[in-house]
């Protein structure tokens, strides 16, 4: 280290309460508001003893002084705050105007004096890197990498001050303004510090990720490296070397030597130039094994210091390793919590993908499911609180099921991957990929204990399934299930009504949730399982020539199912549409006014009173349902009628003008008739041969079992949402009480707390103030809402990549065939069923479709979703309606645009864009 590097200059006297200059040695993570994310990280690393080149930060106080000299900024900031991030041209226009104003502003003399005094104390003979460091940058959850400018190899006082000013101006580059607008960061609140750092003149430089950013594995270090300055690498000018190293063992997992065509070098007089490298150099490894070991060790130490995976910029000068930046890797999906206690590799399946609702949920909604699922429950908590399921974990405010115990047993592995693969193909494939990893196979078995534990449920369920498959009259299934459901809902309602409002009622609600699914799994599951098993048995025996008919006849059995409560709700929405269609004034009222306002005014227009009477009847039966209904916190139809009104309005367009009343029910009834006829053809075609009489008798039974059992597919969800409705009332009541006592600022904040936290707050002699904690948790929830959850993941963070299909037409979007048939039509992308209207005859393109979305199916000509499998809700209802459907189409809502003409091939499982632009 040179004499200049050993100097630790003191900052100049502060201006007001904040200094204009802070040397790295006086900066910690707490100084982020003054020196920005980059400056705070550099100071934190320097104080921790990491090899950071010396330097200082020009603080945000200097930036404020610079802005104070720009009188036009107030109006420009108003324009910046008005940007919504969607209008790119508007963002460019405002950003350019802002830069023009700032470009005319001088550097304040006090700031210039402070910068130059510190620079001279450090040593004017060195070259300097001048980097922007915004206060909304290198944050734990948003890196903002590359949004502001950097200037390298700066020499001389004039060049230094000019670089500082240009960094300030770069806070308003087009990309920075647009990024903040889209990310919801206010422009007024973001300030800029400038990092001035002795520039390292490296032989080799690059980026180190302490977790693999591609696979997500936290135990793999990934390093990109090239010759010269790192600008060639980060600017994409070279194909850098790639090295992957196992953290624990130090083993080199992968080496990919890149074609490093050039190196960026500093000029003696300042600035940089590009050096073309000779063939022997460009194809050589930039890092040897010793350098890799040193890099990995340093990366591990930095990650341990920050407590989370880091993206680290490094360089090597004269054999010495330097760190010039670190930031969190914000692209990694969070690991499931609680983490495994056995330190072995675990495999998790996304609960939301199976349930067709992948949105983030608040803490109370997440706890509901840890109480509901009766598998591997923990011991009772304090005060006898019910133990929660340990297979249910949380990552990114979503639920993930730890499938490891089941997957460690060979029999259970085949059963569960088979079931999950049938329900959701990608989940099954993803779990198989994780199970195939050597690290998973080395894990302790634990399978026998899991098999014994699972046997408590599997054996009784299997016995009931077999009884229904061969003995029980199929006509008894639906009445038995419905009687069971009514008794459970009535029981929960009675128990909660008998408890005192507040803590006692919440305790009772928690206990009711804990008890519910044990009975549902043992009683209701066999009735559904026999439908699925009967269907698969018919298909299997048909392929072996033991059951007659055609595949088309067997597929037709899933249409027009009897008793499906979700289908009945959708048909009831069609009935409401029929009530409106004859009355243009009523239709226009619903189309043009907000839902609640339109309903209030409907009584004064022709047809309105009769419609409102039918509406009240609908809400009495289905008002507890709605989009995202597995989330306790989501509004129901009775709270927010907009999704239903949008579905009704969608059925009133020109394409449906000539529809007769009841046409939707007639269509469903016709499908049921065709299904019954298909069943009779299957039975008749099975009668041949010596054993034909027996096979035909079994076929008749299994046809009835299939249709009856699959018609009960939605009953458990319906039971759940009815119980959740009762629990939700108790929770909202508790929220209102906590608002009255000053613990919460709004009743909706109640969902940000767990049951035990709410009970403790309600019983406390001195009510706690939970508002700050509520704000903190809301911020986490909202941040997680922007993440895209994986369908499966490992405990080390790996998200497996599935093979791309090779049987697709050019440009087609691959998915899972969910409902047979081919349809062409106009696409309608719907992200929120409360705001977007699907018109009759259009093809619905959606992120997912749980039962709260399915009223749209009454009008849809086809279905495309980003999430889903053969047995998820949207697929089942699509088959029942007979509309072609392709699910699990990655990025469908971004790759398909409303108005494009598309072809949905629900038989082969792909989507093609025909007109309106390529996908």
Automatic annotation (TrEMBL):
Residues 33-332 form the Pyruvate phosphate dikinase AMP/ATP-binding domain. This is Phosphoenolpyruvate synthase. Keywords: ATP-binding, Nucleotide-binding, Pyruvate. Residues 840-909 form the PEP-utilising enzyme mobile domain. PANTHER family: PHOSPHOENOLPYRUVATE SYNTHASE-RELATED (PTHR43615), PPDK_N DOMAIN-CONTAINING PROTEIN (PTHR43615:SF1). It comes from Archangium gephyra. The keyword Nucleotide-binding applies. It comes from the Bacteria. The lineage of its organism: Bacteria, Pseudomonadati, Myxococcota, Myxococcia, Myxococcales. The keyword Transmembrane does not apply. One of its GO terms (molecular function) is ATP binding.
């Amino acid at each position: 280290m040179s004499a200049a590097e050993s100097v630790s200059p003191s900052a100049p006297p502060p201006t007001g309460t904040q200094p204009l200059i802070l040397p790295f040695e006086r900066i910690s993570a707490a100084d982020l508001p003054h020196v920005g994310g980059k400056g705070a990280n550099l100071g934190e690393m320097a104080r921790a003893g990491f090899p950071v080149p010396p330097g200082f930060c020009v603080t945000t106080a200097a930036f404020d002084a610079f802005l104070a000299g720009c009188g036009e900024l107030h109006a420009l900031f108003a324009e910046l705050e008005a940007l919504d991030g969607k209008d790119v041209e508007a963002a460019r226009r405002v950003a350019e105007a802002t830069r023009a104003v700032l470009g005319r502003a001088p550097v304040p003399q006090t700031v210039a004096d402070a910068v130059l005094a510190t620079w001279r104390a450090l040593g004017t003979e060195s070259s300097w890197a001048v980097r922007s460091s915004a206060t909304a940058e290198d944050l734990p959850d948003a890196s903002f990498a590359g949004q502001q400018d950097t200037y390298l190899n700066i020499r001389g006082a004039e060049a230094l001050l000019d670089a500082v000013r240009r960094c300030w101006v770069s806070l308003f580059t087009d990309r920075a303004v647009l990024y903040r607008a889209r990310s919801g960061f206010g422009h007024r609140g973001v300030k800029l510090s400038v990092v001035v750092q002795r520039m390292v003149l490296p032989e080799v430089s690059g980026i180190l990720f302490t977790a693999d950013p591609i696979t997500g594995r936290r135990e793999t270090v990934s390093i990109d490296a090239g010759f010269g300055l790192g600008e060639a690498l980060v600017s994409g000018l070279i194909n850098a070397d790639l090295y992957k190293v196992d953290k624990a063992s130090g083993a080199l997992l992968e080496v990919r030597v890149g074609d490093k065509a050039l190196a960026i070098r500093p000029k003696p007089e300042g600035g940089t130039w590009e050096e073309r490298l000779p063939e022997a150099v460009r194809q050589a490894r930039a890092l040897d094994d010793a350098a890799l070991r040193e890099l990995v060790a340093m990366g591990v130490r930095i990650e341990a210091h920050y407590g989370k995976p880091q993206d680290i910029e490094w360089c090597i000068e004269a054999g010495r390793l330097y760190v010039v930046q670190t930031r969190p890797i914000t692209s990694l999906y969070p690991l499931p919590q609680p983490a495994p206690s056995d330190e072995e590799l675990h495999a998790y399946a996304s609960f939301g993908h199976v349930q067709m609702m992948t949105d983030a949920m608040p803490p109370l909604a997440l706890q509901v499911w840890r109480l509901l699922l009766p598998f591997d429950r923990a011991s009772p908590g304090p005060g006898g609180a019910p133990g929660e399921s340990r297979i249910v974990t949380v990552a990114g405010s979503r639920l993930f099921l730890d499938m490891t115990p089941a997957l460690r047993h060979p029999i259970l592995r085949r059963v569960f991957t088979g079931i999950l693969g049938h329900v959701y193909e990608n989940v099954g494939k993803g779990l198989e990929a994780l199970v195939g990893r050597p690290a998973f196979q080395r894990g302790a078995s634990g399978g026998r204990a899991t098999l014994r534990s699972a046997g408590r449920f599997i054996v009784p369920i299997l016995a009931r399934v077999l009884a229904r498959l061969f003995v029980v009259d199929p006509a008894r299934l639906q009445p038995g299930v419905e009687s069971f459901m009514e008794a459970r809902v009535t029981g929960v309602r009675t128990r909660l009504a008998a408890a005192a409002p507040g803590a006692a009622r919440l305790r009772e609600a928690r206990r009711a949730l804990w008890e519910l699914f044990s009975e549902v799994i043992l009683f209701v599951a066999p009735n559904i399982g026999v439908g699925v098993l009967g269907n698969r048995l018919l298909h299997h025996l048909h392929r072996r020539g033991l059951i007659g008919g055609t595949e088309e006849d067997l597929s037709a059995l899933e249409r027009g199912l009897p008793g499906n409560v979700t289908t009945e709700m959708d048909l009831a929405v069609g009935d409401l549409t029929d009530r409106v269609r004859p009355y243009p004034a009523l239709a226009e009222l619903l189309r043009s006014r907000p839902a609640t306002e339109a309903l209030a005014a409907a009584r004064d227009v022709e047809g309105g009173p009769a419609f409102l009477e039918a509406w009240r009847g609908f809400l009495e039966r289905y008002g507890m349902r709605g989009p995202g209904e597995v989330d306790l916190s989501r509004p129901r139809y009775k709270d927010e009628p907009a999704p239903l009104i949008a579905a009704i309005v969608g059925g009133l367009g020109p394409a449906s003008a000539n529809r007769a009343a009841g046409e939707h029910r007639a269509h469903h009834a016709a499908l049921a008739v065709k299904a019954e006829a298909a069943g009779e053809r299957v039975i008749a075609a099975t009668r041949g041969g010596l054993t034909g009489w027996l096979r035909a008798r079994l076929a008749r039974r299994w046809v009835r079992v299939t249709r009856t059992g699959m018609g009960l597919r939605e009953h458990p969800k319906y039971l759940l949402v009815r119980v959740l409705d009762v629990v939700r009332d108790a929770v909202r009541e508790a929220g209102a009480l906590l608002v009255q006592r000053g613990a919460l600022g709004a009743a909706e904040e109640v969902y940000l707390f767990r049951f035990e936290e709410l009970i403790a707050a309600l019983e406390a002699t001195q009510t706690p103030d939970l508002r700050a904690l509520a704000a903190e948790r809301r911020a986490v929830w909202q941040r997680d809402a922007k993440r895209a959850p994986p369908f499966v993941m490992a405990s080390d963070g790996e998200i497996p990549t599935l093979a791309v299909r090779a049987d697709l037409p050019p440009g087609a979007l691959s998915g899972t065939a969910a409902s047979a048939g081919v349809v062409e039509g106009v696409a309608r992308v719907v992200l929120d069923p409360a705001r977007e209207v699907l018109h009759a005859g259009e093809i619905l393109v959606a992120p997912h479709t749980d039962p709260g979305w399915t009223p749209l199916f009454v009008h849809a000509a086809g279905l495309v979703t980003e999430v889903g499998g053969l047995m998820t809700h949207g697929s089942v209802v699509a088959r029942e309606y007979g509309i072609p459907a392709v699910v699990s189409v990655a990025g469908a809502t971004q790759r398909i645009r409303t108005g494009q003409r598309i072809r949905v091939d629900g038989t082969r499982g792909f989507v093609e864009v025909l007109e309106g632009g390529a996908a």
